[in-house]
Amino acid sequence: MRPGSEAAAQAVVNELGVPVKAGPDPLQKRLLMKIADHFQELWAPSFGMPRGRVREFVADAAYVDEREIVQYLLAGHDLFSVMGSSEDVLGSGETIMGGDSIYSDGEWVWRGDLWFYVRNHHVCLPNEFLERIRSFGYTMPAEGLSSLMEIAKEIRPRL
Asked: How many CB atoms are located within 10 Å of the residue 109 CB?
């Protein structure tokens, strides 16, 4: 059988040894959710082209509503909990508990350490994400379990 032939595709077997037809590579399709903190240092290349490096998005001053934005980030729906801590990639020497965890509001996803970068380094968030946060009055919108599970299924193979 030649690779790429119909017969080769049907020769793939699952973990139980049952032949299954191979589908498209899930990592090749475009992400449906948006990544609020898509910085080179924080996300694997499998998540696509980052916005840039964290340092490029550090502002001189905090958002006037920074406290409310941070609370929104901390209230996110937990998609993946990671025990342990992550180091501040901007070099403060601080560590952030659960920094590698992933949260969502149903449309956007972010790492568990994003609140830290917003509060301590005044990292700028995408305008579309800020508009969403503010439009909800800084209150995390309710999301159904099935919706969050779909987002988690999209993220998991890329981790």
From this structure: 27
Backbone phi and psi for residue 61, each to the nearest 5 degrees, phi listed first: -130, 160
Residue 30 has pLDDT above 80, yes or no: no
State both tokens at 70.
């941070």
The one-letter code for the residue type at 25 is D
Measure Cα distances from 128 to 29, 58, 125, 133 in Å: 22, 18, 8, 9
Q: In whole angstroms, what is the distance from residue 80 CA to residue 82 CA?
A: 6
**CB distance 117 to 52 below 8 Å:** no
- Contact between 114 and 38 under an 8 Å Cβ cutoff? The reply is no
pLDDT digits (tens, 9 = 90+) for 36-92: 999 999 999 999 999 999 999 999 999 999 999 999 999 999 999 999 999 999 999
- Give the domain ranges of the chain: 1-25, 31-158
- Model pTM score: 0.81
In the numeric block, the tokens 């910085």 are attached to: 39
